[in-house]
């Protein structure tokens, strides 16, 4: 005969372990995107347009699900689709020049990182974003 007992491999325990791993990966991904955005911004700040005007990028960050695929036969392209892509685009288009603009979802992932430093962020509440309504967003100023 056998008996059952609680163990760390129970279905609910395994599910919570998977959730923790997924959250850790999402936080790590958000951090990597943010670090990349800061590096690109830093590189761009040392460049200028052909007319001599300083180059100031607008960078948008959002976190969420996407669908990807290769589109086209003659000239195949890898593409991302979904509301996350649209929201990221809105973060970029409403971003002040030379800054990084993050949605609440991306910001929530960033603040979960161990080395989070909020000193460079400015909260923007009530930003009207086309197709999204009024959002709370964050701009990196450093």
Provide a descriptive summary of the structure in words.
The chain is of the alpha+beta class and 142 residues long. It is built from 3 helices and 6 strands. The chain has helices at 11-44, 83-93, 104-110; strands spanning 58-61, 67-71, 77-81, 99-103, 121-129, 133-140. It has a 4-stranded mixed β-sheet with strand order 1-4-6-5. It has a two-stranded antiparallel ribbon with strand order 2-3. The longest helix is centred in the first third of the chain and has 34 residues, at 11-44. The chain is globular, with a radius of gyration of 20 Å. The N and C termini lie far apart (65 Å).
Helix content: 25-40%
What's the total count of β strands? 6
Classify the secondary structure makeup into a structural class: alpha+beta
Approximate strand percentage? 25-35%
Output the keywords.
two-stranded antiparallel ribbon; 6 strands; about 140 residues; disordered N terminus; four-stranded mixed sheet; about 35% helix; alpha+beta; 3 helices
């Amino acid at each position: 005969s056998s008996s059952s007992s609680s163990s760390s491999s129970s279905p609910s325990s395994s599910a919570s372990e998977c959730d923790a791993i997924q959250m850790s990966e999402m936080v790590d991904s958000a951090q990597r995107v943010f670090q990349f955005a800061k590096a690109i911004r830093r590189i761009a700040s040392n460049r200028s347009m052909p007319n001599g005007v300083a180059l100031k990028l607008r960078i948008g960050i959002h976190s969420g699900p996407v669908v990807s695929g290769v589109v086209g036969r003659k000239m195949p392209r890898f593409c991302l689709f979904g509301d996350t892509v649209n929201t990221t685009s809105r973060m970029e288009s409403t971003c002040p020049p030379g800054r990084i603009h993050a949605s609440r979802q991306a910001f929530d992932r960033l603040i979960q990182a161990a080395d989070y430093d909020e000193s460079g962020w400015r909260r923007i509440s009530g930003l009207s974003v086309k197709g999204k309504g009024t959002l709370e967003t964050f701009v990196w100023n450093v």
